[in-house]
Design goal:
Length: about 575
């Protein structure tokens, strides 16, 4: 007996719908894409009950003739590609010819369309569960209207998996934002249960973002633009005022198509790495254009993913473009502190510093060799202090300290106000990072070495951490009985803060027990925070200058490792405006 039969096309469509249509948001996605592909200049989206009850999309695009409207609901019927070569050069959002039949197979659908060259006369079809129930002539405006009701009404198992109305609604709002940012020239209106959510008139990218996020974002985003080889990147990226605790305001488009790619997002976030903490996400909307042949968009039935022939090239393009723009993130680069003439770090650290704490902790204190070569602290400090200032014109400029908290100085374009604690934090942080990757930092000997006692669990973990602490400039020796002696500390650190720093780092490590990049990040930023001068510390004129000069020699002078601003710039322009001179 033959048991293999070809499935009826309705069932095939329902199965296919499983891949293409996950929920109401996928319907909205496919329909918006179709409207965009049809060159619409206005698209209205109305949803009811989170799109589960009804989704209605109306556009003013090219429309379809009576025959095309019927054909559009056949599987693999598309006007967008004709032969296999076309797959390598797709310039439309759709191309698989699967969306409409899939949606129609799992909902009650009414579609009407009037083709652009036909005189306001077109057709309307009603399809329930993939079955054409009605077809009639229709007069009206050019364009297309598609109403999708009761999604999954005929597949209860799928309907059960839908999320709550609010979750579905949120996903749709996110999606509409995504498409409206990608297509600022198209006017979008979006209603949920007859309530207006978005009303966007035709615009440019910057104003589209402002229309969606409110005018305050305009001061908090910077444009980004770069080309490299066959790639072009442009868009807007947010500063720290746009940081949110949850993801959702990040947009990456490749050749006009919104893509989700962990790798590419991580490229963007990594450029912010030292500016924002983990779990904080800044806004960005970037567009990458590249030759179609370096891209495969036909990887996922719903086209959520794309594949690149060289994703690392893209990774570096994003990371370097972001980093470049972020340098100016608060537009505070004062002209006199020109980055190009920053002082060369000409401090010579002794080669082959002996780590005072050998990686293998032995129980016998006598097995430790004392450091063979000690840094001459006085000399290093002198050298540090005699570093040339960024611009000798500034030599005579006074740096005031107010409330033992902020430093103020004059620059060519106005004045800058610097938070002394976060400035020092930024300096120590970058020093420590560089020290861990490089040759290590000099130490200062403690006149009265400190002993620290640990629990035996923590003590066992110490050998993992000591080499890193030692690179930053701590000199640590085992003392026996779960106790260590701190004999030296980083030379830029104030005496007395060492116990806190070390304890906090060990405590964190005892939870993670893994040395990875996020732990090193934690360690360096904890060190920087705990070791830096505090608000309330009085600084001598010499110390102030040292701090300011060192700050402007850092890579990111504008934000502390935790993301707080370091510098505020008050331009002469701004002052003139405030005093009504202009
Ligand atoms: P695809 O978009 O992959 O071609 P769809 O099933 O989404 O497949 O749509 C099938 C065809 O129906 C499209 O190729 C297009 O010709 C036509 N179509 C769908 N929606 C619209 C619309 N809003 N305006 C004009 N034509 C449309
Ligand atoms: Mg489509």
């Amino acid at each position: 007996m033959n048991v293999i039969k070809k499935l009826p096309s309705i069932i095939i469509d329902q199965i296919a719908a499983g891949e293409v249509i996950e929920g109401p948001f996928s319907v909205v996605k496919e329909l918006i894409e179709n409207s965009i592909d049809a060159y619409s200049s206005e698209i209205s989206i109305m949803i009811y009950g989170g799109g589960i009850d009804k989704i209605h999309i109306v556009d003013n695009g090219n429309g379809m003739s009576e025959d095309d409207l019927q054909n559009a609901f056949n599987r693999h019927a598309t006007s967008k590609i004709i032969n296999i070569e076309d797959l390598n050069n797709i310039n439309t959002l759709g191309f698989r010819g699967e969306a409409l039949p899939s949606i129609a197979a799992v909902s009650q659908l009414k579609a009407s369309s009037i083709y652009k060259d036909d005189d306001n006369e077109g057709a309307e079809v009603i399809i329930h569960g993939g079955e054409m129930l009605k077809k009639r002539k229709k007069v009206g405006n050019k364009g297309t209207s598609i109403e999708v009701s009761n999604l999954f009404y005929n597949i209860p198992a799928r309907k059960k998996f839908l999320k709550t109305v609010n979750t579905e609604k949120r996903k749709i709002i996110k999606l509409v934002k995504e498409y409206s940012i990608a297509n600022p020239n198209i006017a979008f209106t979006f209603y949920s249960d007859d309530k207006e959510i978005l009303k966007l008139t035709s615009s440019d990218l910057k104003n589209r973002i402002i229309d969606i996020y409110g005018s305050s974002i305009s001061n908090n985003m910077i444009s980004i633009q770069n080309t490299k080889d066959a790639y072009e990147i442009y868009g807007y990226i947010g500063n720290l005022n746009t940081v949110k605790k949850s993801k959702g305001n990040q947009y990456i488009y490749i050749n006009g198509r919104s893509v989700t790619s962990r790798l590419l997002s991580s490229a963007a976030f990594s450029a912010y790495q030292s500016l924002v903490s983990r779990g904080e996400f800044p806004f960005f909307a970037i567009f990458i254009n590249m030759p179609n042949e370096l891209l495969d968009v036909n990887v996922h039935p719903a086209k959520y993913e794309v594949r690149f022939s060289n994703e690392w090239q893209l990774y570096h393009l994003i990371k370097s473009s972001f980093s470049e723009s972020l340098k100016d993130v608060m537009s505070v680069i004062p002209s006199m502190y020109n980055k190009d003439i920053k002082p060369k770090d000409n401090i010579v650290y002794p080669e082959n510093r002996v780590l005072p704490f050998p990686p293998n902790l032995s129980s016998s204190p006598s097995s430790f060799t004392p450091t063979s070569e000690q840094v001459d602290i006085e000399k290093v400090n002198d050298r540090l202090k005699s570093l040339p200032t960024p611009n000798s014109d500034n030599e005579g400029k006074i740096i005031w300290q107010i409330h033992n908290k902020y430093l103020i100085t004059e620059i060519n374009s106005g004045i800058v106000i610097i938070d002394q604690h976060v400035a020092h934090e930024r300096i120590l942080y970058e020093q420590a990072k560089a020290a861990i990757d490089g040759r290590g930092l000099p130490s200062q000997k403690l006149l009265f070495p400190e002993t620290i006692k640990f629990s035996s669990e923590e003590y066992l973990l110490l050998p993992d951490i000591i080499p890193y602490l030692s690179k930053i400039g701590f000199e640590i020796r085992e003392f026996g009985q779960d106790t260590i002696i701190v004999e030296g500390i980083p030379s830029d650190m104030e005496v007395g803060k060492e116990i806190n720093v070390i304890k906090e780092i060990i405590e964190k490590y005892s939870h993670s027990k893994e040395i990875n990049s996020s732990f090193i990040e934690y360690m360096t930023s904890t060190y920087a925070c705990k070791a830096s001068v505090k608000a309330g510390d009085k600084l001598s004129p010499h110390e102030r200058r040292f701090l300011v000069d060192k700050l402007f020699a850092t890579e990111h002078p504008y934000f502390c490792p935790h993301g707080r601003p370091v510098i505020i710039n008050l331009s002469i322009d701004e002052l003139d405006k405030r005093f009504e001179r202009k």
